[in-house]
Amino acid sequence: MRFSTLATDYDGTIAHHGTVDAATVDALQRLKESGRKVLLVTGREIPDLLNVFPEPLIFDRVVAENGAVLYYPESKRSRALAEAPPREFSELLRARGVNTLSVGQVIVATVDPYETEVRLAIKELKLGLEIILNKGSIMVLPPNVTKASGLATALEELRIAPANVVGIGDAENDHALLKICGYGVAVANALPELKKTAHWTTPSGHGQGVRELIEKLLTDSILPESGSSLAASREGATV
């Protein structure tokens, strides 16, 4: 089938060390000019993203904070898709010595060495929060907030069925992204577990791998089928 939409992760996928090279920007632009939709699905907060990637208009929507925030590049507005943790949570973490801490509209994020402190704070404050791991980072979010839930909201607004979407990523939190899409791709530098559940792993990593996928989409090439566990999971994913 002809896929109408690309949903891509940022770090480790289109970006390498936080930067997207010019060739990948050009490929994304060509894909958009072909009439397809291009969505970014990232764990980053919007101000941080715009600081490293000043060309958000390439994207029709940006799902940020690992599914908790939806950003509209044309109007430069955003809206939270979940309720933020109480201020007491981040205050308690700082009081317990969690010095590497980022607080977004919804997400609270830190790094691996502080996992114990995060779990203890959640328990002490009796909060219904979930921890999502991402290559050394720890993201704390309300229950059931994932890249899949944020993408589902964006697709509903754009009236796009998940079956028409190709998703591509590299890390633990991209399992949810690939699971909701009609076709899941892992870049060559992705974690082994993500490669196991993807339909296809690109020959190259990072932006070059994304470009390899985009060329297949632009030429309407038949995408490889490696046989994964995604198909059964997708049957229950609707928008």
Describe the structure.
There is one protein chain. The protein has helices at residues 22-33, 46-52, 87-95, 115-124, 147-158, 174-180, 192-197, 206-218, 230-234; strands at residues 5-8, 37-41, 61-64, 69-72, 77-80, 102-103, 108-111, 130-134, 137-141, 165-169, 183-186, 200-201. The protein is an alpha/beta fold and 239 residues long. Strands 5-4-3-2-1-10-11-12 form an eight-stranded mixed sheet. A four-stranded antiparallel sheet has the order 6-7-9-8, covered by helices on one side. Strand 3 (61-64) and strand 4 (69-72) form a beta hairpin. Helix 1 (22-33) runs parallel beside helix 8 (206-218) and helix 5 (147-158) runs parallel beside helix 6 (174-180). The chain is globular, with a radius of gyration of 17 Å.
Labels describing this entry:
12 strands; 239 residues; 34% helix; alpha/beta; disordered C terminus; 8-stranded mixed β-sheet; globular; 4-stranded antiparallel β-sheet
Shape: globular
Strand order in space, largest sheet: 5-4-3-2-1-10-11-12
Q: In angstroms, what is the radius of gyration?
A: 17 Å
Quickly give the structural class.
alpha/beta
Short description:
Helix content is 34%, strand content 20%. The chain has helices at residues 22-33, 46-52, 87-95, 115-124, 147-158, 174-180, 192-197, 206-218, 230-234; strands at 5-8, 37-41, 61-64, 69-72, 77-80, 102-103, 108-111, 130-134, 137-141, 165-169, 183-186, 200-201. The longest helix has 13 residues, at 206-218.
Topology at a glance:
Layout: E1 5-8, H1 22-33, E2 37-41, H2 46-52, E3 61-64, E4 69-72, E5 77-80, H3 87-95, E6 102-103, E7 108-111, H4 115-124, E8 130-134, E9 137-141, H5 147-158, E10 165-169, H6 174-180, E11 183-186, H7 192-197, E12 200-201, H8 206-218, H9 230-234
Helix pairs in contact: 1-8, 5-6
